[in-house]
Here is the input.
Amino acid sequence: MKERKMMYRAVLADDEPFVIEGLKEAIDWAGANFEIVYSSTNPLEVLSYIQCNPVDLLITDVSMPQLSGLELIKLAKEANPLLTILVLSAYDTFEYVRTALRNGAENYLLKPLDPNELSESISSVTTHLKERSELSSTYGSSMLNFRSIFIENWVKGSLEQDDFLTRAELLGINLQLPNYTVLLFSAPQADAPGMARLFDYLLSIFIGNFQSHFYFETSNRLVCILSSHETTPDMEGFLASLALVRPLLPFPFFVSVGHTVDNYEDVTKSYRNAHRYLFLHHTAMESYICESISPLPAGITRTIEQNFSKISMEDYWAELSRLLTPNLSSKQRMEFQLSVLNHGIQQTESENMEPKIFEKLKNLLCDTWNCNNLAAYLKSFVETCYEVLDERREFQTNTYPYVDAVIQAVHDFSNKEISLKALASQLDMNPSYLGNIFRQQTGFYFNDYLNEERLKYAAELMETTSLKLKDIVDKTGFSSQTYFNRLFKRRFGTSPLSYRRESKLRNGAE
Here is the structure.
């Protein structure tokens, strides 16, 4: 029974049978940790099922006989307030969509359905549902809503321009302000329930001073976009006000303030910058205001950001130590140190290993700003990262060899039809069980891992080959260049063409 909780339950409603069949066949539902438990062309039957059975997701048309989609949404939400709802719509029923979103639907899909769009939406729902039980118990049942999803898509740059502007207009969000700054508030996992009080205090500070938009990235991490009508927002003044709040809360929290940008399109840059320094919440610091990133030379960055699984600790440290020369300015040394720490955390961070890794690394991180011998400090940090990875690899190899089989299959990029269901059949396993074990060991849902590895391979091909972009899309297993472009921009913060152009410039500069 414990394993079954990892599979979410979906119900489909559409008066066209071919739409329902298309939904069932469009994506690898098991790979997204979903199972379709019921479907019908009769919305009354769907409602009856929801009223009598546990359901996590309803996908419904907005225009149906017997009972309209809007009525179905209203009655389904009454039966199950935590139900996630995606609506299907043709362009000529968009006013229905607007009403559906206001009545409790979380997102919409336009007909005819694009399998890539569906896959992306379901992946997003899965990620949010993972946090739902914790969030809903603390903050109520409305955390997974249209506004929250929009703010998340905004900071991660995952919407096409036209779609973004349409949704912003639906929500009445002002995109003409002179500045935007992303802030990340985080607290220890054990203190996640207290984030509701912090949220209340923040609202009292923001009212009258800032325009603000929020969503909970996890139960203990709050993402905020702040804007003001002033040319330059007073972040120092804001942090001073925040200092008055700290004694009122029975737990510590950290805020990473991204650099301020002057237009809504660059919000994702501020978010990535704030996220880059989030690891400092494991130190004694209470806040950090990021400057606009001034990157290290490309060669140094590539050396730091190597995959730990592909280079030994001795070789990695030898390469790093050669870069720590007296020629580095004090600012570059600080940037070097932060880059190594951030990369080490990213390489070792895992849902399973977090308590172990940060128990070992926290004391080292607390010395971030006060180390007299930077080389010795960083070497100790790197050694500890490799120790944690060795422990994880041994655990995975000895306990779950079939997870390695899945990983190897993913890295066979020539297999464009790969799916969790097909792999489970090859390994003579239940897809649900394999998905659960895979996520437990890697921290990824299967589809998310598949996309991540394909994107990294695509980036490698752009840097090391002269293949045309359409050939790279095909070689890495993506079925649509539009879908690839969107995922690539979300992952790397720039378009594939810009990434390749910048890569050539970096290589030329060296």
